[in-house]
Amino acid sequence: MAFVKGLKCRECDREYPSEALNVCDFCFGPLEVIYDYATISEVISQDRVAKGPLSIWRYHDLLPADSEDPVDIMAGFTPLLKARNLGKKLGLNNLYIKNDSVNPSFSFKDRVVSVAATKAVEFGFDTLACASTGNLACSVAAHAARAGIQAVVFIPSDLERGKIIGAAVYGPTMISVDGTYDDVNRLCSEVADNYPWAFVNINMRPYYAEGSKTLGYEVAEQLGWRLPDHVVVPAASGAMFTKIWKGFNELACLGMLDGVEASSFGPDQNTVHHPAVTTKMHMTQAAGCSPIVTAWENGNTHVMPVRPNSIAKSLAIGNPADGVYSMRVIQKSCGTGYAVPEDEIVDGIKLLAETEGIFTETAGGVAISGLRHAAESGAIKPDELTVVYITGNGLKTQEAVESVVNPLSIKPFMGAFEEAFNQRSS
Amino acid sequence: MGRQRVKFSFPADMVKEPVIYRLGRDFEIVTNIRRADVREDIGWVILELDGEDAAIERGLAWVGTTGVRVDPVTGDVIDG
Question: CA angle at residue A205 from A117 to B53, to 5 degrees?
Answer without folding.
Answer: 115
